[in-house]
Design a protein that fits this description.
disordered N terminus
Amino acid sequence: MIRPRFARSVAAVVALVTLSSFVVACSGSSDEVVKTADGKTVLRYEGSTGQVIYPELAADLGYFNDVELNWIGDTTSGPQSIQNAATGQTEFGGAFNGAVVKLASAGSPITSVIGYYGSDKESFNGYYVLDDSPIKSAKDLIGKKVGMNTLGAHHEFVVREWLAREGLTPDEIKQVELIVVPPVNTEQALRQGQIDVATLGSVFRDSALERGGLRELFTDESLFGSFTYGTLVFRDDYIAQNKEAVADFVQGTARAIRWTQTHPREEVIAKLTSIINSRGRNEDTKLISYWKSPGVAGPGGTITDTEISTWIDWLTRNGELEEGKLKPSDIYTNEFNPYANGTYSPDSGADGQALEAAK
């Protein structure tokens, strides 16, 4: 997911107008549950400009029964998104699972409830150098700069994992400099020699490769295959106090993910484009035209132990997490996901029917 600049001024106006139609049980605290006039639980969240996140798709498809979304702006950072959820500024947020594990290990009471992004053979992030670059191997990256959109998240972990698998020692890995570069500027920074390796995904990767002159070092898909990298989280106290709302949110979002997993690319692009054009946020739909696949491994975003334990083990090996302090079940639950809890077969579509029957 691309995470653009936080639109504070717009968010304030939208929130004010939207909240005027809500009935609030009490006033003054971010922990209070807001209800609509017809009794639905309101979930504040941050989106991504020019993109449609799965809960937004679920809302448009009519998959929610008991919850209503309240967009308060956009986020540019997964770690910040889950931090905002943990501190009550939003009800849910999403980030790379390594960042989720780090936040949980610091004592933040959060739980992952559904996977929402990852990589497959069609949707992935690549790490590129110029064609004439002397960089051929991981060893060649010692003392070099790698550009990525944020630190402490997906790209940093993947780069460090690749370096470790290629045989670099912890001290050598520390000598590889990770630089924050906005995705829109990454290709230019590489071509101008400001960085030595560019992290490119989605439209930024495709358009850069069309212009030529780049060579792939590795991809996240080449490391882990089809793999879900990020999850949406709620605070534990919020789940305990609003279990029905969380359950409805997860079932609707899971069905939206499954909808994209089982529908043609052209149909998905048309739906996402329609949502952006109708919501009035003054956005460009160019990014949507580059949508290729959900990039979510499990049916409906079901989470596996491996998708969490990989990063628990990584943090433990790097001395950032005490061995045995956390296990995957401390971090996530599939309790509310209909494709994992027995409500729907994992092989069924968004409506719960067998895909063969749906056809």
